[in-house]
Structures are given as structure tokens and as C-alpha cells.
Amino acid sequence: MCGIVGYVGHRPALDVVVGGLRRLEYRGYDSAGVALLDGQGGLSVERKAGPLANLEAKLAQVDAGRLTGTAGMGHTRWATHGAPTDRNAHPHRSTAGDVAVVHNGIIENHLPLRAELEAAGIELTSDTDTETAAHLVALAYAGADGGAATKGDLVASVRAVAGRLEGAFTLLVTHAAEPDMIVAARRSSPLVLGLGEGETFLASDVAAFIEFTRDAVELGQDQVVTITREGYTVTDFAGEPVGAAPFRVTWDLAAAEKGGHDYFMLKEIEEQPTAIADTLRGHFIDHKIVLDEQRLSDQELRDIDKVFVVACGTAYHSGLLAKYAIEHWTRLPVEVDLASEFRYRDPVLDRSTLVVAISQSGETADTLEALRHAKDQKARVLAICNTNGAQIPRESDAVLYTHAGPEIGVAATKTFTSQIAANYLVGLALAQARGTKYPDEVAREFRELEAMPAAVAATLQNLDAARALGRELAGSKAVLFLGRHVGYPVALEGALKLKELAYMHAEAFAAGELKHGPIALIEEGLPVIVVMPSPKGRAVLHAKLLSNIQEIQARGAHTVVIAEEGDETVRPFAEHLFEVPAVPTLLQPLVSTIPLQVIAAEIARARGFDVDKPRNLAKSVTVE
Ligand code: M6R
Fold first, then answer.
1. CATH no. for residue 159?
2. Which of 76, 154, 297, 582 has a CB 3.0–4.6 Å from the CB of 3, allowing a cystine?
3. 368 CB less than 6 Å from ligand 1?
């Protein structure tokens, strides 16, 4: 969580940094701040609680002459230690004000460090873990901590301090006496470098600098990077130079803008056909499914005898769908775990286990730790990720990227449907390697997947009634969701969207469970959204769900049904019926999830909430 951006170049740093923060605000919006080096020994800091707009309003009041300079950094915060107030907003400074630090992550040993600083007579002015780092760097730079090797050397000072910190962190550090550089240290938190002509960028995400350059550099764990106008250097925490891999970002500024929509989320819902098509593109070559990166041999893939899927939130829901496809196509047993629970339940793993880690950001701490646990137990790890060069794919044995482009809305939409497509590609790759499907069967499944962008586009054409229903449901206290088979994870995802966007009580149940308890919740007027299976593809389940709808309707439920086009049997029991194109059973979630996304967004808008930035949330959850 938290977004950070650093810049050393030839443009007004304030504009670059604030512009970058605007694109990183999805990472946290509890407070924001900037630090600017004026090139003449001045270091100015401005910060403000609340969203970036509050900081911008404050900056507009500040004497512009103070905020000049072509080097600076900024921060948008998702609070962990200390309330979201002005005094806890980043950047944090040393007592003399000559060192400024922004931080993403948690410094786990901040309490002993704080005690050490206080014992040395330093007064800390915030409740954050971050402030300790600012004071420690200042002491190291001054040589006041007895470190002769760090005196007057900002890079050595940051290295020395980074070596003392425990936990996960990306730190950006400036010193008034070093106006032409920013030094960063990274452990288990995201950081990417951007390279321009006479300018260099650091950020949590390439979106912050995509306007200026698409040339980026991946940074590894436990590394210190120094940027200047001329370029960059990278070392490990011991000061040994290390290589860093450059890459070219495949999307551009237009992809990171709202494109005429009121909210990013609405644009991202519309982008789903393209996101799915881009995810599939290039993965069926010479009649074979191919992954993006594969450091596993065919034999190792053939030896897999069990699959675990680990993920959080929406990615977990996509993982539940992966189970249906992988078990059906490969006959391998698949377990799906919430990443946060996985390693604490001591799962049975060995070298013939495949763990599939699904993460949009590639930096979710729970998923990363689940992956590391699996690797410690010698399991093979395959990542499905939307972020090139993120930590989860870097630590995996094989990678399939979802090419959904940047997703700025905190609620996952296009990355969910892209993950479903990617999961199915993984299922087909396993079926192909194990020979549980003939090549022509794999080809047929792939062709069916390839037809899905058109089916999703058709679904998107027909959503006015879903929007109207969203407005109608805005006054409801709660909404229930029912589904079966692949419709059940869709129901779970529909409920999650509603919780996070509309702050409404929403629960999803497998419809077969209804009579085992949840039916007691049904009361007059309660909206219940039902995801119907296909009457052709899953006739038995369809009949059972039809009975469920009648049971809840008889008890007063307000029935909303998502059903396949032409499913007339359900019409008499649906007060609202949304038809989606008829597609193969496993692929139905790609269309049936779309009305649920739209209904949730519309309810949230009608209730007056910011659809892109739901309260208390951040896009990337980089702390456990
Ligand atoms: O980046 P990840 O896919 O690992 O994130 C996982 C969840 O935090 C994420 O899906 C979250 O549930 C979304 N806000 C849901 O819309």
C-alpha cells in the first residue's frame, strides 16, 4: 500500500511528483505529501491529511518560490502506524529538517529503534514507524552514530540504515546537502525505475511516470538504488554493485487515463473484451499453449500430482473458478486457499505439487508469503499476474501475465475476467503437458476462449437495465447472492463488489446450502441476485436453482436473475431478468459477472460514494 514517486531531472519536480501521485492514489488516499530540493541546499516539505486534492489545495496557498527545483519526491498514504493525520503524513524529516523520507511498508522493529532514538535525546514528532528511518539516516550522514564510513555519504547512510530495518519497506531518501540525487532502499515492497533523457524516476508503479517514459528497470530485493539526472546505480545492502533488468512498458498514458468515463472502474469494465483478448494473445502457438515465462521442464509439469491455488479477494474468486477447469481438464486434484490462511494450516506440499499464485498487483503480501512457504517446501510455483516484474512473478518458476493493462479502480474488474482466462490457459497447459486432452481438444477449448471477448462485448451493450436496477437497489440494507457450480464464485465476487463499493451488507451462498440455514435471512423485499446455470449445459443444476428461486420468492424475496439468453423457464420467477450470451459452461462467469460489476458500481454512485476509491481500502495490500 502507499504510493511513492521520486524524480531527478530537468522539469519542475512539483508537477512531475504531484502528477505521479495522482496516478498512484489508488494505492492509498489517507494523506499525501511532497519534498522538493531547490538545488541550492533548500529542502521543502508539504503534507496534508486526506486525499491528494487536500494537498493540492494546500500547495496552491504556498509561496510558489519555495516549491521550485527539479528534484523531489512524494507519497500517498494508506495508514498502518499512526492515524491518517497531518503529523503522520509523509514525508517525515529529521530533527534538523535536512533529511526527508517517504516509505511504503512496515518497519517491524520501529519500537526498539524509536526507543534508541529517544534515549539519544531525539524527539519524534509523529506516531509512524517511518520517522525512525529519517532520524537514523540523518545520524549516519552526520557520522553521529559512530559510522565514519557513512559520514557525508547519503548512499552509504541509506545502506547502513536499511540493513538495520526489519519488515517490508521501500524508502526514498533525500538530503538537503545532496540536491541532485534520491536514494532508495527496497525490501519486499514494490519499486520500479524509469529512464528518460536527462531525467530519472522512481515509483511504486510505472503509471507514475508513464507520461514521460516507457523505459523501466526492475529492481530486486534488498537493493539500494541511487538516481541522478544522468541515470542510476544499484547495489545490494552490502554495497556490492548488482545488475538490474530493463524492460519496456507495453501500455501508454492513454491506458492510464479515464477516457471520458466518470470513474476508472467504469472504463475498466468496458475494457474487459480487450483485456481478455490481450491475455489470450500469443499463448497458442504452433498448436500449443505457451506461458510467458517457464523455468519448469515439461517433465516437471508432467510430474505434478496436485495443485493448490492461493490468492486473496477477487483473485481468490478467480482461483475458485480455476479449480473447476483444472480438475475437469487434467483430473488433478485442486485445492483453493485464501493466501492469508495457506501457510498457517501446514498444507501437504512437495516437489510434485504445483502452487498457482494469482495476483493482479504481484505484490500482495499474503500471496507472496504463501508462495514463499510453498517454495520452502520444494513445491513448484506458477504466477498469474498483471504487473510485469512484480515480486510474485519474479519468485515463481513459471509466469502467465494477464495483459489487462493498468487497473486504477480499487475494485478489480477487468483483472478478474482476465485472471479467469489466464487460469484456463494454465489448465490447458497442464492438460497438454499431462496428455489428458488431445491437441485438437486443447485447440477447441482455446478457440472457445478466443470467442469470449465478443460475448463480453455483447453483454456490455445491454446494461442499461442493470444500471437502473442499481439505482433502485441503492436504498436496500442488504443483498444476497446465490449461485451454483461456476456461478457460485461469480456470486461471491458480486457480493464482494457490493461490500467494497457500496458499503452494503452482501452475502453469497451456494444455492444448495440455502435450506441449511441462509433461507432464514429471506424476508419481504430482500433483494436476492441469482446466477443461473445454463439450462442446456447444466440442466440438473438449472432445475434445482429454479426451485430455489421459487422458494425464496414465496418468502417475499425480490428476485434478480442473471440467466442465459433464451432461458424462458426462469422468466416467470424473475422480477428483474438480465440475459447474457449462451457460452460454454466453464466460460459463463466471463459474461455473468459483468452485470454484477455494473449493479455494484451503480449502487455505490447512487449512494454518493467514490467508486474508484472505496473507504479503508487500497489497491495493493503489501502488509499482512
Ligand atoms: O493484487 P491482488 O490481485 O493480489 O489483490 C488481491 C485483493 O486484494 C484484490 O483482489 C481485492 O480483493 C480487490 N479490491 C477486489 O476488488
1. 3.60.20.10
2. 76
3. no
